[in-house]
Amino acid sequence: MDRSNGLEIDTILLIEDEPTTGAWNMAVDDALLETPLTPGTAVLRLYRWSPACLSLGYFQSVQQRLSHLDSRELECVRRTSGGGAILHDQELTYSFIFSSDGLNATQIHALYDVFHDSLIRVLREMGIQATKCQNPTVIPAKEKPFLCFLRRSAGDVLLDDYKIVGSAQRRSREQVLQHGSILLQQSQWASELPGIFELSQVDLTSLQWVGNWLDLLNQEFHCKLSSYSLSHGQLKSAHKTESKKFLNPDWTNKR
């Protein structure tokens, strides 16, 4: 492929899940990350959250959520990736799992651009003038906002200076999980964050645009997309991880 800088993929296994709980969503991503991929294969998972859920970044203190009054009654999970808290309600989450074998840090980081640039292109085709964040102001860690979408990192997708897409990566020994959130619409639990609909008056919640995005990714990776469902072993692993980690207060409250 061209933009992947060394990432050779023949097939992307596509998972399009129905909305489900935060703990299960995180457990499935964990199971996928821990499943060895066959050479030339990656996994792309698209999913939503029900009921609405707050996810903490791995390094965030659970006490910080007390500062966000609107979301205090919601279910809370702790991600395995860093960054700020995300209010998962009127948004679409993607996760992309690929092998890091033979790739350096720069090549792995380039996957942010692949996904964000393709999203920007799809949005612009619908008349939504999204851009990428360039040279954001550096803010000390202790002063960063609680919510991810109030933070800025180079490469974030912006619309009218509001963040509408952000992504993070987590690495295992041999594979990488990149997941990101696309803020489709404002949530009642985070009214300070306008979504794409409020900023453009274009309603993307039907997800009809996702097919165009998948076509662009297919072109970018020069590979085929193949529908995929979790194996029995992956489901078993996800159920175990959900119970022992993401539903476990010791994990959620570990910081």
**In percent, how helical is the residue content?**
25-40%
Give the C-alpha Rg. 17 Å
Distance between the termini: 41 Å
CATH third-tier fold name: BirA Bifunctional Protein, domain 2
Task: Write down how many β-strands occur, each being a DSSP E stretch of 2 or more residues.
Answer: 11
Shape: globular
- The CATH homologous superfamily is called Bira Bifunctional Protein, Domain 2
Detail the poorly predicted runs.
none
Strand content is 15-25%
CATH architecture: 2-Layer Sandwich
Which sheet architecture does the biggest sheet show?
Answer: 8 strands, mixed
Number of domains: 1
User: What is the top-level CATH class?
Assistant: Alpha Beta
The DSSP helix count reads 6
In sequence order, what are the helices and strands, one letter per element?
A: EHEEEEEHEEEEHHEHH
Average pLDDT number = 95
Please give the order of strands in the largest beta sheet. Answer: 7-8-9-10-6-2-1-11
Structural class by helix and strand composition: alpha/beta
